[in-house]
Write a structure and sequence with these properties.
191 residues, Protein Transport Mog1p, Chain A, 3 helices, 7 strands, disordered N terminus, DUF3558 family protein, DUF3558, signal
Length: 191
């Protein structure tokens, strides 16, 4: 009997570690992991965890895309020009172009798009696949492209808010978009 107990105890400890390692409480945002050949594809994504109901009491139609990011949020990547709000197709958009008069180099244009007629499942493949995940009842999607990255935050099955970075390497763009999603996500209604 003693031999069985000594054999089972390490197995039970390993099983407990394996179960806790698969917990769904990891916080963060979707990130692209460059594979061995440097491509911007990944099979895993993590998303922000929410302690309370994100965007509670707000409707999507009440959101101003330019209000979802502050000046400090967008200038953490370098100086930007004043935000430009436009209606592009059916999306309300806001974009911040880099101010290259002060600093040169690769810095992408940042953007937030509010789409009230297309959910996360309707994201377009920009050439490098679309990855989907669900965390805390919210759907997310990520679509890297050769010159940028878009991360969608699901609101309903037919609406979403996109955070995007264009004009940058996809790995860098997705990291920048991830950082911005952490700021935007709590302000976006869910449901």
């Amino acid at each position: 009997m003693r031999l069985i107990r000594a054999t089972l105890l390490p197995l039970a400890a390993m099983a407990a570690v394996a179960v806790t390692a698969c917990s769904n409480s990891e916080s963060g945002t979707p990130e692209v992991d460059a594979g061995p050949n440097g491509s911007a594809r990944s099979s895993t994504m993590t998303v922000p965890s929410a302690d309370d109901e994100p965007g509670a009491g707000i409707s999507l139609s009440e959101l101003d895309p330019c209000s979802l990011l502050s000046q400090a949020d967008v200038t953490q990547f370098g100086p930007v020009k004043e935000p430009q709000q436009k209606q592009i197709g059916t999306a309300d958009t806001c974009s911040w172009e880099p101010d290259r008069s002060e600093i040169s180099g690769e810095r992408g244009t940042l953007g937030v798009n509010i789409r009230d007629n297309a959910g996360v499942q309707n994201m377009n493949d920009k050439g490098m696949g679309v990855e989907h995940t669900t965390e805390n009842g919210r759907d997310y999607g990520r679509s890297p492209s050769p010159n940028g990255c878009t991360i969608a935050i699901g609101v309903t099955d037919t609406s979403r808010v996109d955070v995007l970075v264009s004009g940058a390497d996809p790995n860098k763009a997705c990291k920048m978009a991830n950082t911005l999603v952490e700021v935007v996500e709590p302000k976006v209604p869910q449901g």
